[in-house]
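Regression report. Comparing outputs from two consecutive submissions.

Submission 1:
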Amino acid sequence: PCLMHLCSLLAEKTGKVLGEFCRCYKEQYGVALFNSVRYEIEGNGGPQAQLLHRKVPLEDHVIYSGNLFQYIEENKKWRNRFCVVPHNYGLVLYENKLAYERDLSPRVLINSAGYKILTSVDQYLELVNSSLPGVTPKSGHSPILKCPTDFPLILWHPYARHYYFCVMTGKEQEKWRAVFQDCVRHCNNGISEDSKVEAPAFTDAIRMYRQSKEQYGTWDMLCGTETQVLSNLVMEELLPELRTTIGPRLKGKAQERQRTWIQISDAVYRMVYEQTKAQYDALTAKCEQGRPQMESTIRTDMDQIITSKEHLASKIRAFVLPKAEICVRNHVQPYISSILEALMTPTSQGFAEVREVFFKEVTDMNMNIVNEGGLEKLVEYMEKLSHLAFHPVKMQSCYEKMDQLKLEGLQQRFDVSSTSVFKQRAQIHMRQQMDDAVYTFETLLHQELGKLQGKDDLCKSIQRILERVLKKYDYDSSTVRKKFFREALLQITIPFLLKKLAPTCKGELARFQELIFEDFASFILVENTYEEVVLQSVMKDIMQAVKEAAVQRKHNLYRDSMVMHNSDPNLHLLGEGVPIDWGEEYSGQPEAEPPADKRRRAKQVVSVIQDDEGVLPYEVGTEALLQPCSPEPQELEESEPGVPPSSPGGVEAIREALAKESLGDGIEEAQLTNATPASPMPEADVTSETRMPCATPASPTPRAEAPSPPARAACHQPSDKETGEEMALPDAECSPPHPTGMTESGEGAQTEF
């Protein structure tokens, strides 16, 4: 009865939050639709980009695959896992490499939106200790997690379950950390920018809802898909109450209570996600159903709607602007230049590093072609260069420049909870600019190849095209950065102004509602118009600050008045053509190659450090592999009882047993059972050359071929469900979750957010 009551309470509170959000969304949907149609009719585009934009950047590729150890909570053991990161950045964990190659179902599918990547157990324990106040293990007691190596990788989430991995070397840890961070960065950016109505309606509804609760400023958990963001919104309100209600009732030692709390939080998060997804899908379907009628009204009455909105804005402006200008002058204007400088330095260094990495990769390729020669080598290097932007390790030097971003005292003054929002946005821009530069380079080079005579012509052409692309990159980089700076300044200052003005202005807004014609009430909102007036009060100062930085040529910014005349009028037409497949076009492969063979040759963006399945070092001891009160590992029971730990034979026997056990589970033909079985993983294997063990990122220097991996029986393209982008959750319960599809080792396949 107590659990049923708790489930009922959770459903009620979730429904209440979602009900308020749905009201906000319906209001914002009409405004977003009006703005979209108005932009389509009037048009107000900025400078035309000089670089081309690739539409499908990672088709038939995987980002990374390799072995690492995962801690299995159900049986408290560390197990070797083969992890694949496909083109949509899900984390897919298999029993071992053989299970992946044989198309067996993956063990775990993880969507990493909202997660933090930790490389220290101490960092993790600090977060865990703060999650449940008053529950901290006493000194000398075993912590909630022990790691058998010095190189952990922990995925921590404030609401969902945590994942524990470790590797054997620092190089492996750095590479996996870069890969995991790229997955988080990509999955956090889960709301499609291609949607010109639903996306702005959703983000504005979230903002309006939070402001109604007196929560202004940036929000760290605005990450993932719409359903994930909404689930985070519900959990933000639900978790404190849940902690107060359930926390005191938890029994056992401190680490056991912490572990139980993490499981309860995850179970509640799954329940909330399921309820949220159902309600949000119903909401969007209803809005989409009414869209044609609304759009027809907008197009018919566009002029009257604009006139009505301008009349409303003039009345609100007369009331609000004097107060807003005083607030801007006293509390915002003196700090704009400081905020801008704090943003410009690391961001511009990151974009400069993107330019440097691109220049170095192309120059190295050109030098290798001079030394080795031939179109065949060009094809090999271009296949690697074409995915440079999606190489987490090579791009890491660009991304890490943003780690310097510090707003210091400004962060507290303007109620900025974290700079992570701005860091991530800048990093996404860096990746996009790198890919645009690479795609433009390969498009121009591809166009020139038919006209070239010999190796010397090829090298001169590469150098000439590189210089052209760098000029285009400098122009686009300046445009992108200036837009980013303006948006970041608005994100920092507007919530601060709204909070300052709320006591004197917000209560008076209701009287302006009568100025809106009833027929246009779906497209004009007093609250949105008020925010636009506040934005106008500070926009002039922000534009001026960015303009002055460009006039002074700070950080290689271009003036707005500078227009780069398009020296390649047909370039954008080239970008609309069929994507270039260097390997297929120039490697002499037959045109009618079977689709299965083409997928089997799929390349891997990042080379593997260690492809072999390893075992944890015996020296760490059995105790380090287990949590307190966990059962003895079955693997160790098979070794000879009389062999001492120092005996080489004992070490070899244990390692052989571990390797045999790890491999044996994956050879079984039986499919894993689960309430939501994961579909088979696609054919995304790598060629022999990319599967070779390598201690450094892939470089232009050729490597010896290794035997090809065994062909897989069935090949499928990655689906969203496989990588957790869109998931069907099992029936959630209020009690701590237990795996539904258990194998002999006590592990179950899990589908994660």
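Submission 2:
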Amino acid sequence: GLSTQPIWRKLWDDVMKTRPPNSENITCWRKKFLETFFSNVLHGVLDVSSDWRLNDRHFSPLLHSSPHVSQLTLCNMLQGVVELTAEHNQKVLENLAVSLRILKFQHLLSSDQSIRRSLVLLLHRLIHHGSVSQVSMYSWPVPDTVLLILILSMSAGFWRSGNALVYQSSPCGLCREKDKAQSQESEEERAERGHCDGREWSDGENQKGSPRAPEEADAEVNRYRADVCLSSVLSRPRSPLQNQACEEASSKVPCDHTSIQGGSSRHVSDQLSCHPLRKTRRRPKSAVGKKRRCLRRSRGPHADPEDLYDFVFTVAREDNSGLLDKNSTTEGENAENGTSSSPGSPCAGHAGCKKRGGSAGIFSLKAAHRFRSVSTLELFSIPLTGETCRTLSNLLSSWVSLENLVLSYNGLGANIFCILSGLRALSRHSDCHLRVVRVSDVFSHMPCMELVRCILSAFPRLHTLSVSFDLKNQLEGNRPEGNPSCSEAEIPESCLEQLEIRFPREPLHTAFLVPVLKASKSLQQLSLDSATLPCSQELGLLLEALKECNPNLKKLSFHDMNLAEHQKEVLLLLQDPVLQEITFSFCRLFESSNTEFLSEIINTVKRNSSLKSLKLPGNRLGNHRLVALADIFSEDSSSSLCQLDVSSNCIKPDGLLEFTKKLEGHIQQRGGQIQFTYLRLFQNWLDQDAETAQEALRRLKAVCNVVNDSWDSSQAFADYISVM
């Protein structure tokens, strides 16, 4: 029953010899120590031989700490990947497959072929046969396209199952057992069907407990054939036309699928031929080309070093020969979508996707055998080229397990239409699990509200949607018009609970926002950032729409919007009996106001018993307004305010001390009964008198939790002047 937290905290100081970041937020020092210990040993930051307690040949640092690792970061040259996939660390990898949930890649650089092969095996074990649910990638200014698409494809669950290259270097026992079971099952089904004249099953056999009905048996065999054949398709960057060429040349060159086990190969071409999955529109090809492609495919287990590159580009690749243009959609897909060239197909003719001849929809992934995939994908500050966007679009189109998608500062530009195309294709899957979408970038290529409508119309079950852009498109005069399918899309009733929109200094037209609000009856959080108000009535119309359409709204935030001339609307919001958290961040509330406005704010908050959090950062409160805010907690107040944020408000130490004394007086008058628990003081001028600031903070911490920082106001002011 004794806590070991102090022991682990001391071990951190003895072994790590560094101050842990955000130490006040660490809830379990044991987990923090062992997770960091694993990472530091793996990356060579910590030398275990330097500590006598760890320098023991019977002790394996990685093996001992691996069961406690839930988050792992791989960076730079992917140090540690080869070590983790080494044979002597097999048990370590097995432990990580159970414990690891989050896999991060940061500041990656190009790597050689051997490291990439090890990465393939690592991702296969941790994602496809493991418990990793989130893959995040950060800060990759010049991404290696091969490596990036490799990580994306394997995160989506694609891998060359049964591929000779991977099996030959390091067999995956889990895959071999699965393939063996499937093969035996297929042979049994084929034998049973042969005894029963292909399709006829006797009643007697059915009464003896046959495992499957005849239709199920046929479907199982057909699915197995499709899986293996499509696995072969995905193992080379080849169009459906080449499948046909392979089929036509099969009489001359056998087109076998092999499985390597124990150094021997078993041919299954008798039951799995290279028939094309669907009919496609074809152009005539020479017989020489057909034979050459089949010869390459019949090389057997001896894969060349370029096979890994082939794997990376199997999902989507630009075909320089123009074998299949964007109109070459399959008949099966057309029948399913009910159109000949559906805009919902991945990258079908949108502005950002028209690159030469190929498109992301060359290979159909609907019938492909898929491994387990992650549920969260995050890409931060990674430029995505047109080719990468087409690949990602095609992966998204069938990534049904994906629940959270974050695309942040990826330089999408016109390629946003390509991503939207893949998302629309994903939305047509009944088992789609996508619930959170966050898109942010420097430049917007389409109006924010249009993008919001487009996403919501495709995903009415979305819970969180965040759209954020810093600036309008650079080529404002040549800015392409929005996608008609987005602007005209009707928004069905949605499950949206959180909506965040950052406008690139675009006018806030309530008429465009109202349809979204009406469709989002369950909305609980709304955040509007950097929007301009074209007229004085616009904010009032928004408040009316919120009151009418969103009765469950709990949190409302305005950031970097000039509300100096909207005092009436501000007071109406503070009176709202439903809102629990209101944020006016850098909204210039007191820029052109008098003392009466501040008094009205204080009296309104005092009468509102539902408001729990009031955030006023960046509104030039100063000392005198801060001291006045202490009256919110006076004896005659019915306020339930718990959190107050006055960051970036030019507050000085003497003003903070006066606020503290006044607050102490109100608490004493109320007999200590106060619900105020958090005060945020970031980026104020508390460094101008350190002694007074320390006294004020000491007394405040006896009343509530104070969150502040050591901010150098003089340097910040100098930086501000230098930028002006």
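Expected: both submissions complete independently.
Actual: both completed, but the second showed a warning that disappeared on reload.
Relevant detail on submission 2: Residues 173-195 form the longest helix (23 residues).
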